[in-house]
Amino acid sequence: MTPHVSDGLEDVVAAETVLSEVDGQAGRLIIRGRSLDELAGRIRYEDVARLLWDGFFEGLPNDLGPALGAARAEVFAEVAALDTGLLDRSPIEAMRALAARLADGDDPAVALRLTAAPAVFTAAVVRAQAGEAPVRPDPGSSHAADILRMIRGRAASAAEVDALDTYLVTVSDHGLNASTFAARVIASTRAGLTSAVLGGISALKGPLHGGAPGPIIDMLDAIGRPENARAWIEAALDRGDRLMGFGHRVYRVRDPRADALKKAVRRLGEGSNVLPGRLAFAEAVEQAALAILRERKPNRPLDTNVEFYTALLLEALAFPPSAFTCVFAMGRVSGWIAHAREQLAGGRLIRPQSRYVGPMPREAA
Ligand code: ACO
């Protein structure tokens, strides 16, 4: 019998997981038995990492904060390897190259170093690209507070730290998305956590996955005013472009993470970090995009995904758009590690098949 080929593995269930459930019909995300609403804006990033890793490592402390702080200080030594060749690369390529210097392994110390790595290396890369010296981590600080401090060279406000924690928690895990699947495939070969995380970073980088928020800022800037939205969007779709921040493989309704992040932008606005009118403008562009997508694709529900308000939130926190995907990696890394450990604990080598459609050798024809 000819095997069925599933384009994009859309209808394939490739793993059982206790880590997260993405309900694409109800627009609901559960992370280890808690709804996103119970977590986003309520716990720190180190606490969601602890929740995700629970049961997957021996002897984890209840508070991962001090160990993660020590890991940030430890991986900072690798920043010395940031040479001019790497600084010509995009932040995610430079960050990935520094992360590749970390030793492979499967123990909690490796996991903590890998969780620290995107934060410490991205901050150093962004500063070096702006001609500034790296800022040494503060092991006593919370992860989110230290990220903002390392990138800016000064402490951020409590509201900004809360907003970054909300973001990192919101994106910490999301079922078998492309980067998590990549990480699980690598883990299934027993290559080690560093290899799995490097694979995750590489898959995340693409614009169809974690690379969308930078281009969303470009789109908003190109549109400029709400009254230009319709014409700009129509022209983009006429060219065959996709609208970044819309559509999802699993959600057929609005991505619940979009609202969690929009709320965080609104809260930050009260502390006046958001450009005046920016949120209202983005909402107008979003409404125009949704209306046009409905007109053009009546049979395919396309709604707002996590990336649209990610762009606004990370912009409000003054991350450069070129580094937005690195910030996504800072959040998703704990999920990749949890999935890699889950795969190792119970899964077999992931090795699907392909159907050969090329020419046959003459003797077999
Ligand atoms: N803009 C315009 N059209 C779209 C969009 C979009 N954003 N998304 C899907 N479509 C259209 C496709 O062109 C296709 O139309 P067709 O059937 O007439 O050819 C139809 O909707 C179905 O699209 P698929 O490519 O089959 O959907 P898929 O599930 O493979 O893609 C994806 C999901 C990659 C997220 C897609 O919606 C997309 O490219 N969105 C823009 C990029 C983006 O925002 N990525 C971030 C996703 S969230 C995350 O990964 C963290």
Structure write-up:
The chain is mostly helical. The protein folds into two domains: 36-210 and 323-346, Citrate Synthase, domain 1, CATH 1.10.580; 213-316, Cytochrome p450-Terp, domain 2 (Orthogonal Bundle). Helices cover 53% and strands 3% of the residues. The chain has 16 helices and three strands. The chain has helices at residues 36-39, 45-53, 65-75, 84-87, 91-99, 108-129, 143-152, 158-170, 178-188, 193-204, 213-223, 229-238, 256-270, 278-296, 306-316, 324-346; strands at 20-23, 28-31, 34-35. A three-stranded antiparallel sheet has the order 1-2-3. A hairpin with a 2-residue loop joins β2 (28-31) and β3. The chain is globular and about 60 Å long. It starts with 19 loop residues before the first strand and ends in a 19-residue tail after the last helix. The mean pLDDT is 95. It binds acetyl coenzyme *A. The site of acetyl coenzyme *A has 20 residues, from α15.
